[in-house]
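Regression check, adenosine monophosphate case 402:
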Amino acid sequence: MIKASDALHIVLKNARVLATESVPLLDSLGRPLAEDIVARENLPPFDNSSMDGFAVIASDCRQASETKPSILRIIGEASAGNVFTRKVSAGQTVRVMTGGVIPRGADAVVPIEHVVEVKGGEVRFTHPVTPRQYIRAAGEDIRRGGQILKKGDRLTPASLGVLAALGHRQVRVFRKPRVNIIATGDELVDVERKAGPGQIRNSTSYALAGYVKSAGGVPRILRIARDNAKSLQTNLKQGLASDVLLITGGVSVGKYDLVKDILAGLGVQIKFWQVNIKPGKPLVFGTYMKTLVFGLPGNPVSTAVTFLEFARPALLKVGGSNDLLPTRVPAILDQPFSKSDGKRHFLRGVAAQREGEFHVVTTGIQSSGAMSSMSKANCLIIIPERATGVRKGDKVEIEFLS
Ligand code: AMP
Ligand code: MG
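Current build output:
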């Protein structure tokens, strides 16, 4: 049995980043970038007005006041998209709209709220003007040559906006990991079938497919394998044709828990079996050429926890992401908890913020078979190996699930 941190280390060491592909900008949302993005132009590309108003030469109005206004003559207009091409000279002003190019010669903008237009094409300025006021300078947002996004960043809606502003119609991202999912067990029936005596529906494959999708992978649910060597050999062999193979069940110490040995027989190099955690102890991990193989325990909560703690970081790494591990935040446990098995526990919790701090309680029944404990939870509560008792009101660490 190995420590959780060692197990994660081994998994990540064996995870290789996939090849890259170029996709249309809109298809890149949520995917990790496969290249650093360096700005090939300035943003904004030109000096422009941040207000509707008048472009002026600041020195014409430096001392303008209610009692000593400056009066300038309007010589034209610069709206967004329509450039005023002549030069502004002393005594002149150009009407500008937000986003309009600052005309040559002008070096400040006066908002329309601060002026009075007088008849005959003149404007009266009654506030002192400082050079560059209300001008958005070329390159003040993004400077040409600067690094804007880096390899491995997951593309957000805002980054799509930045890429569009810089003229990227296509984006280089990592190929999405293909993930095969195989449930094992003589008791399992698929969701469209009626469960007979002693049978239960295959639920973990669907939960896993959901987790895989949320982590940027492409899940494929394969046929259920039965608890005999022949069925397992056939199905697992098929499953190995993927970037990641997730198997559930059959990894414990029961008479029909054959998965580990069958995998080894198929040529999978088993890297570890059994981790010092609860739930999820029977976890198996191995590699087959470039394919990562996880034998996750069959109890639905164990399946979910071991996926989230070990397979998800690997999937993210394979998919090119920088950010592999869930963020941990401190929270106050509003109930006592005790254990003495020296394992790292992952409790299903519901956390909420009160007076600036997170408070967390468990979802109730913590049996590893209790699906509801996982679906009600918004976080996992981590109780470290060494801890024995946690008192009500003690600080713990939690990981949010979404
Ligand atoms: P195993 O790890 O195969 O010993 O299974 C442990 C428990 O999880 C048993 O009660 C199984 O019936 C249950 N189980 C295994 N696989 C699944 C699955 N795909 N969906 C729902 N429950 C399962
Ligand atoms: Mg089983």
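Comparison notes: The pocket of magnesium ion (ligand 2) is lined by residues 184-185, 249-250, 298 (CB under 6 Å). The helical segments are 4-14, 157-165, 204-214, 229-239, 259-265, 300-318, 371-375. No diff flagged against the previous build.
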